[in-house]
Amino acid sequence: MSTDDHARAQDFLDELYRLNGADTIGNPGQVPAARIQVRTADGTLIGEALLSARSTEETTLAISAVTEYALTMPADYQAGRTPTPEVDPLLIADLEDHFAAVDPQSYLPDVFACDDPEVAAAAYEQMVTGEWDGEL
């Protein structure tokens, strides 16, 4: 058993405890609905968590969501990594339209009020023209 495997299993158990604790804050008298034992692949017991009914349901939903993603997007799914989602092209176009409608002169009061006018002027030039000489 590698230390990474043990750490992953411990992290999972810790998150189960945290989920259950968050659920029982407002209702400390909840009765456990499920007992989950966490073991490494070689069978080493890491620990167990007693989960309330709601925590059990939320854990099931989370695992189902990851499973659906892995089955639907197998090329994108990489265990242990958060994928970078595609940004909707229409959203990008909306943002570009929004910023294109901003009058560059509306930034000037901030430029003149800056403690370091040279840095502010260089930043303003880069924002307005898209050019930058590499110095601030």
List how many beta strands DSSP finds: 2
Sequence of strands across the biggest β-sheet: 1-2
Given helix and strand content, the structural type is mainly alpha
Euclidean distance between termini CA atoms: 52 Å
Shape from CA axes?
elongated
Order of helices and strands: HEEHHHH
Tell me the Rg in angstroms: 26 Å
Low-confidence residue ranges: none
Describe this structure in words.
It is a single chain. The chain is mostly helical and 136 residues long. The chain has helices at 3-24, 53-72, 89-100, 108-113, 117-129; strands spanning 34-39, 45-51. It has a two-stranded antiparallel ribbon with strand order 1-2. A hairpin with a 5-residue loop joins strand 1 and strand 2. Helix 1 packs across helix 2 (53-72). The protein is elongated, with a radius of gyration of 26 Å. The N and C termini lie far apart (52 Å).
Task: Give structural attributes.
54% helix; 136 residues; mainly alpha; two-stranded antiparallel sheet; single chain
Record the SSE blueprint:
Layout lengths: L2 H22 L9 E6 L5 E7 L1 H20 L16 H12 L7 H6 L3 H13 L7
Antiparallel strand pairs: 1-2
Brief write-up:
This protein has 136 residues and is mostly helical. Helix content is 54%, strand content 10%. Strands 1-2 form a two-stranded antiparallel ribbon.
